[in-house]
Design goal:
Number of helices: 23
Structural class: alpha/beta
Helix content: 40-55%
Strand content: 15-25%
Length: about 575
């Protein structure tokens, strides 16, 4: 055996077991594509040697630290741009003395690289201090000091640095202008505490924290504190709130875990960082069978619940903030907080804000998406003076937004909504399916996909849409979009002639959001089909209270849009209102 000083790089796929369980063939195909299309060409470009493959991972060797760093950055950026969006690698790089035996590498130099890889976020790179010392000033990508870490089976702590590839940088075209980075949503997830008597459960709590951070990191527009930095603060007995204050995170997620026999209980709490006031708290009880499956299940449940609470808290904060935001991002957030489906009187203000945002930054995709939504809302709310012009403007703005940010899930959701409302069902479904691939924990997007499928042409699509809406209603019962999901279910049930269910779902929507005229119209239609004429008239009166300017023409437009361009279904919906003597 030989000894030599070399640069070691280790990488593996984050959440690989879960990905394989969800889609074995697709995951293997994406991994193979990464190796052939990204990893192998980059190894050749930067003079690296593939020592061995380790399942979903790989061990590589480089003679140059800078070449190893360039390879890592290129690999992460390449995977982000080309591969399955669920497939994300963690990478660790170290410089150390190794033993070489028949081409394989052994020793502490390899062990440190392996430990660094576990500290990296999905899509991230962690390096040792020696790598940092030799590569700093030679790379365009920045380093972040994560402090010293005590690594398993290593006698001395190792100082760790995160190397930030371009794919993790803030983009003005998809989130906020770089100067306004602090304005975008942000959260720090403190390591969950283990309240169990068994010290081994501390690893379970840490694993749960890591899964939550990994999933939150896949929510576009949300800045998530680095896992390594928070764990490092705990290791050094530092107050993690100091980091929250210094880096101005808006929210903090905390929690604890307790195991009793074969059961596990997790409590999670969401806090406003500026006031330290609790926004939301929930308890999750599970039977502990497969520890890793349960860990992922609870993490996903927390992230799903967080998504709705985060959205609701942001809306409340933006509505209460009277300060004038002059940048494009701020104008867009102000308009989004106006809740146009209910607050139709705010449509002129939203249109002004959207127009100002597109002028302030013509390259900002979010502003174009907002403008598309407002044009569509003008039609839906009956305030459009020229529906065909608004419809054309909505499609044009949505298409422009996609040109600027082709993989922004919010832009794709808006495009899907606009295309669906304009009768372009297939293109709408394509955009929304891509959006949920990119942002699988955004139930607002899932709701829009479920609605579009459930209103769709084929029976299979309708059933898939119903299944999606049922799933998100059961898994996110406190989400602020719930009244709209009930409305979607009502219209979809009416489409299939299930008028009793349609009435029941519409009633639930109106109970939660009585100011939404669309749900009252859906209820009137269902009651008309059921022969409940007085009830239908009462529902229309409630719709008129919610929208005093409601006219027969507006009713017709609401039904046309809800029918997805299907004239037969539109006529069926109209017949319910006609039967009740409302048209």
């Amino acid at each position: 055996m030989q000894r030599r000083l070399t640069t070691i790089l280790i990488a593996d796929v984050a959440g690989y077991s879960r990905l394989m369980a969800e889609d074995e063939a697709g995951t293997l195909a994406a991994l193979k594509e990464c190796h052939s299309g990204i990893i192998e060409p980059l190894l050749q470009q930067f003079g690296g040697r593939l020592v061995k493959l380790m399942g979903d991972g790989l061990l590589c060797e480089f003679s140059s630290v800078v070449d190893a760093a360039h390879f890592a950055i290129g690999m992460q950026d390449g995977v982000e741009a080309k591969a399955n969006p669920a497939l994300r690698f963690r990478i660790g790089i170290n410089v150390g003395d190794v033993l070489v035996d028949d081409g394989d590498l052994y020793g502490d130099g390899v062990n440190v690289a392996a430990r660094l890889e576990t500290l990296a976020e999905p899509g991230g790179i962690c390096v040792s201090e020696m790598v940092y010392q030799q590569a700093r000033g030679k790379l365009a990508a920045p380093f972040e000091d994560l402090g010293e870490h005590s690594l398993k089976n290593l006698p001395e702590p190792v100082r760790v640095f995160a190397l930030r590839p371009a794919s993790t940088a803030v983009s003005a075209g998809t989130t906020a202008p770089p100067a306004q980075e602090q304005a975008q949503g942000s959260i720090a997830v403190f390591p969950f505490d283990s309240l169990s008597a068994d010290p081994e459960d501390a690893y379970l709590a840490d694993g749960l924290t890591s899964e939550i951070i990994n999933m939150l990191s896949r929510m576009p527009g949300l800045r998530v504190a680095a896992r390594a930095a928070l764990f490092s603060a705990r290791t050094r007995n530092e107050d993690p709130w100091d980091m929250v204050r210094e880096q101005t995170y808006r929210y903090v997620l905390t929690g604890n875990l307790r195991r009793a026999g074969a059961r596990i209980r997790v409590i999670a709490e969401l806090t406003d960082a500026s006031t330290r006031s609790q926004i939301w708290s929930n308890t999750f009880d599970r039977q502990l069978e497969d520890i890793f499956t349960v860990q992922e299940e609870i993490a996903e449940a927390i992230v799903v619940a967080f998504g709705g609470q985060y959205m609701d808290a942001e809306w409340r904060r933006l509505r209460a903030d009277k300060a004038e935001n002059l940048d494009a991002w701020g104008l867009v957030q102000k308009a989004r907080a106006l809740n146009l489906p209910v607050n139709r009187n705010a449509i002129p203000e939203a249109f002004e804000l959207a127009t100002r945002a597109t002028v302030a930054d013509p390259s900002y995709a979010g502003a174009q998406a907002l403008l598309a939504s407002v044009h569509a809302q003008r039609i839906m709310s009956g305030v459009s003076s020229d529906q065909e012009a608004d419809r054309a403007s909505a499609v044009a703005a949505a298409e422009r937004a996609r040109e600027l940010a082709p993989d922004d899930p919010g832009v794709l959701r808006t495009l899907g909504k606009v295309l669906s409302n304009c009768g372009e069902h297939a293109r709408a479904i394509s955009a929304l399916r891509r959006a949920v691939e990119i942002s699988p924990f955004d139930f607002q997007i899932w709701g829009r996909l479920g609605r579009t499928l459930a209103y769709g042409g084929s029976t299979a699509e309708q059933e898939e849409g119903h299944a999606i809406l049922d799933r998100i209603l059961s898994r996110a019962p406190d989400h602020p979009m719930v009244p709209y999901w009930f409305y979607f279910k009502s219209v979809a049930c009416a489409r299939q002639g299930r008028f009793e269910e349609a009435a029941r779902f519409a009633e639930r929507s109106t109970q939660i959001q009585p100011g939404y005229a669309g749900a009252w119209i859906a209820l009137a239609n269902a009651r008309g089909h059921l022969g409940q004429n007085s009830g239908a008239r009462e529902a229309i009166e409630s719709a008129r209270r919610a929208n005093p300017d409601l006219t027969p023409e507006h009713l017709l437009e609401q039904i046309r849009v809800a029918s997805g361009g299907d004239d037969a279904h539109a006529e069926s919906a109209l017949s319910g209102l006609k039967a009740a003597g409302l048209l």
